Amino acid sequence: MEEKAVANTSSILFLAKLNRFDLLKNKFSEILIPKQVVEEIFEKDNPENLIIKKELEDFLKEKNVTNLKDFGLDKGERASLSLCLEKKIPIFISDDKKARKFARSLGIETIGIAGILLWNLENKKITKGELKNLLDDLVEMRYYISSSIYSILEKESKEN
Asked: For the CA atoms of 114, 131, 119, 115, what is the dihedral angle to 10 degrees?
C-alpha cells in the first residue's frame, strides 16, 4: 500500500473526535495536512481541541503550502486541493460536498468518512459491530450524513 492522500478539516476533526486515525492509516501510506487546515482546526478556543491536538501531533506531515489557487472554497479546502495538484497526490479526503465536486472536476479522487469506514470493513480492519458503533458515535457528534449513505452504512453494519 503506497497510496497518499491530502486531508481536509472536517474529516480530520471527526476522526480525531472518534480517536480513530488508524482508519486512515490502514488505507493510506501517507496523509498530508496543509498548514491552513491545521490553522482552521485550532483557530477556536475549545477544550476539545487539546484532545484533537494530541491526536494530530504525530499525524501531521505537511507544514506549509504556498501559491494557493482561488477555487472559491474556504482556505483549508483551497490549500488541500492546491497540495493535491502541486504534489500530484490523486486522493482528497473530505466530507464537504462542494469541495468534493470541485476536486472531481480536477481529476482528483475523493473519499469521505463513510468511504473510509466501508474500506476498513471490506478489508477486515474493523468488524460490522465496530462500524455500527462508529456510525452511532458520528451521528451523536452531529456528523452530517445523507439518509442514503446512512442506510448503506447501517445495512453493512448489520450482523449476519
From this structure: 0
